[in-house]
Amino acid sequence: MIKKILLVDDSPISRRMMKSCIPKDRGYELFEACDGLAGFEAYKEIRPDVTFMDLTMPVMDGSEATGKIREFNPEAVVIVCTADIQIKSITNALNQGALMVMKKPPSKETVEDALLKADEHIG
Amino acid sequence: MDYCLDTISEEEKEILQEIMNIAFGKAAADLAEVINIFVVLSVPHIEILNAQDLPEYLKSQVSAYDRVSIVEQNFWGDFKGSAFLVFQASAGRELISLFSDDSEDFGSEPIDALEKETLMEVGNILIGACVGKLSELLGDAVTYSPPRVVTENSSNDAIPVNIFESGSSAIVLKTVFCFNERNVNGFLFLVTSNDSILWLKKSLAAFMEQYE
């Protein structure tokens, strides 16, 4: 069961868009980080059930951060949410261990679908 | 009506930045589908300038290139302006092989013409997809002029000087990219005048309404 969700994106607007798409009635606890490295550090501290990860970010990109999180915890559920929808970028993110890739902009439906998949994966 | 430079708020700039990010991501994916290339993306940058400072700003951004090739395309809708895709002048030659099965076989066409056609094609896809997606997200539809390629010995000569009337302001949406396999870097600038500012502000607000 999902309780804690971490949002990693350098754009405050993008994080706001994601937050608004996450259902409010399930008591999720939301956390935010502004780049891949901060996201990795936040992951280690918070141990969220699901991490939404952007790809194109300063300091450390989302692909590398996904790899680091999955190295730290091979069970970690990372969902990439990105504007970079090139096949190679998507393949790379999946190879780093992302559960799935969502394209931006997010919607309530795509986020709901992603959370459902994450829930099924967690079991 | 005189619009001052702060008519676009910091928050509106951030929204525009995110929309540009999505739009250029779509453009890169469209290009990668047509030719075998991977586009390394970066975070877009939004700048509000006095129109008379625009040529100097654009030149300063590409000053590292001694010779430049520019694909220029105008677009019209509620969102209207000009797109400039700027490469080092050598980019056309680097990219030709992506459109040819045999990189050494350029056929009978002069190499300069092939370079121009290649840049025009890359520009057409990147500019069309980026401006198209940006307009779509903001509820607009635009039409385009045919792309035009300009290659100059110096970046000083290549940037058009009087795009907008002096006294008006210009919004520059800039993204830097790199074609990974080809060692080709470039910039895409979308420049729109204050004619589009009121529409832009309303459209950005409407876009964010779905996320309230």
What does this structure look like?
Chain A has helices spanning 12-21, 36-46, 62-72, 87-95, 108-122, and strands at residues 4-8, 29-33, 50-53, 78-82, 100-103. Chain A is an alpha/beta fold. Chain A has a five-stranded parallel beta sheet with strand order 2-1-3-4-5, sandwiched between helices. In chain A, helix 3 (62-72) links the parallel strand 3 (50-53) and strand 4. In chain A, 50% of the residues are buried. In chain B, helix 1 packs across helix 4. In chain B, strands 1, 2, 3, 4, 5, 6, 7 and 8 form an eight-stranded antiparallel beta sheet that branches. The two termini of chain B are 31 Å apart. Chain B is built from six helices and eight strands, in the order αββαββααββαββα. Chain B is α+β, with helices and mostly antiparallel strands and 212 residues long.
Describe the secondary structure blueprint for this structure.
The complex is a heterodimer of chains A (123) and B (212).
Chain A lengths: L3 E5 L3 H10 L7 E5 L2 H11 L3 E4 L8 H11 L5 E5 L4 H9 L4 E4 L4 H15 L1
Chain B lengths: L9 H25 L4 E2 L4 E6 L3 H8 L6 E9 L4 E8 L2 H6 L14 H27 L5 E2 L3 E5 L2 H4 L10 E11 L4 E10 L3 H13 L3
Antiparallel strand pairs in B: 1-7, 2-7, 3-4, 3-5, 3-6, 4-8, 7-8
Helix pairs in contact in B: 1-4
Descriptive tags:
heterodimer, A: 123 residues, alpha/beta, Rossmann fold, five-stranded parallel β-sheet, 5 helices, globular, B: 212 residues, alpha+beta, Chemotaxis protein chec, eight-stranded antiparallel β-sheet, disordered N terminus
